[in-house]
Amino acid sequence: MTRLAFFVAAVIAMVAPPGLATPFPLPCDSTVVRVILSPTSRDTLSFNVIDQEAVEVSLAAVVGSSFNPEYWIANASGVVVCGAFPSPTLIDCGPLPVAGNPYRIIVLDGGQDGL
Fold first, then answer.
1. DSSP characters for 45-105?
2. Less Cβ crowding at N or C end of the chain, within 10 Å?
3. Predicted local distance difference test score (pLDDT) of residue 55
4. Rounded CA gap, 36 and 47, in Å?
5. What predicted TM-score, i.e. pTM, was given to this entire model?
6. pLDDT per residue over 63-79, tens digit each?
7. Total structural domains in the chain?
């Protein structure tokens, strides 16, 4: 089983509006800083796997903010394959079938009060 690692830092001050239509492509083995402007907004990142790959996801809020990142991973059909997790938990998800590509990581403020 191959393992991908995705490290996403959830920062507060947004690039994507609520109901993001086009997910941000998430490169493998990298840290991505994304910004969320509104406590009720969500951000979506996308990635592909090779068959039976596992992914690791870790999120972090900006130090000093009240942002409480929660996220889940869904396949291309919108079926959640790894359920809602509070950060800073490091999540191992998989093995994932290639048929689920592209997968999406949906991130939001769990308390919808952080800024």
1. EEE---TTEEEEEEEEPPTT----EEEEEE-TTS-EEEEEEETT--EEEEEE-GGGPSEEE
2. N
3. 87
4. 20
5. 0.73
6. 767 777 788 899 999 99
7. 1
